[in-house]
Amino acid sequence: MPKITFHDLRHLHATTLMASGENPKVVADRLGHSRVQVTLVIYSHVSTELQRLTANKFEEDFFKDNVR
């Protein structure tokens, strides 16, 4: 089993919250970041992935409902 550090758990916690759509301000507060921007920069990979998933879901829903 790999060694898991406190920092790894902290990152997992923040990434999971961001991926579940939690408000970035809430995540920043939980992590102790003084500015939300810090949280958004560090975890931007999560929001990029969420944007992609949202775009794919919209496309699927749009074309599913508009195909004759």
UniProtKB/TrEMBL annotation:
Q: Which residues form the Tyr recombinase domain?
A: 1-56
Q: Does the keyword rRNA-binding apply?
A: no
Looking at the UniProt entry, the stretches that span the membrane are none
Keyword annotations? DNA recombination
Determine the domain of life of the protein's source. Bacteria
InterPro entries reported for this sequence = DNA_brk_join_enz, Integrase-like_cat_sf, Integrase_catalytic
Note one Pfam family from the annotation: Phage_integrase
Give yes or no: UniProt keyword DNA-binding: no
State the name under which the record lists this protein. Answer: Tyrosine-type recombinase/integrase
